Amino acid sequence: MKYDLKINGETRSVEADPDTPMLWVIRDELDMTGTKFGCGVASCGACTIHVDGEPTRSCQTTIEDAVGSEITTIEGLNDKVAMAVQTAWREKDVVQCGYCQSGQIMSAVGLLTENPSPSDEEIDDYMDGNACRCATYVRIKDAIKLASTRLEA
């Protein structure tokens, strides 16, 4: 079946079965490989994208469910919040292996868009479910806090 999807501000046409997860549409059909496969059951967060501005696990979101929505992948992040998060990520040297980082960043941007000045507990609660194999959670939280202070300025 042919679907028209709005991804990163562009309309893209894709042929896929209605139950194809967006993860595979994004990676295999559209060649955007920043979104990662982690677990396939929406538990690790590596596949996080934004659907209508909300962080969403693409491994469990079908193409049919995504039609008509504004989809943003890590490649399409370019607003003020995203820039603050990405800059803080580099400054705090968050990345170790890097595998989970696109999902972590997508979730962090979702958090700071929703709540520009989160408490430590709010950061922990919001980021819960984003697994990091290298356990860089302290640096992730520090980067979110740094981005938050820059957004307040």
Widest beta sheet: strand line-up: 2-1-5-3-4
Largest sheet: 5 strands, mixed
Distance between the termini: 48 Å
CATH homolog superfamily of the largest domain: Beta-grasp domain
Overall average residue pLDDT: 97
- CATH class category of the largest domain: Alpha Beta
Poorly predicted regions: none
Radius of gyration: 15 Å
User: What class do helices, strands and sheet pairing give?
Assistant: alpha+beta
Helicity range = 40-55%
Tally of helical segments: 6
CATH fold category name of the largest domain: Ubiquitin-like (UB roll)
Strand residue percentage = 15-25%
Number of domains: 2
The count of DSSP E runs of length 2 or more, i.e. the number of strands, is 5
What is the N-to-C succession of helices and strands?
EEHEEHEHHHH
What is the overall silhouette? globular
What is the second-level CATH architecture of the largest domain? Answer: Roll
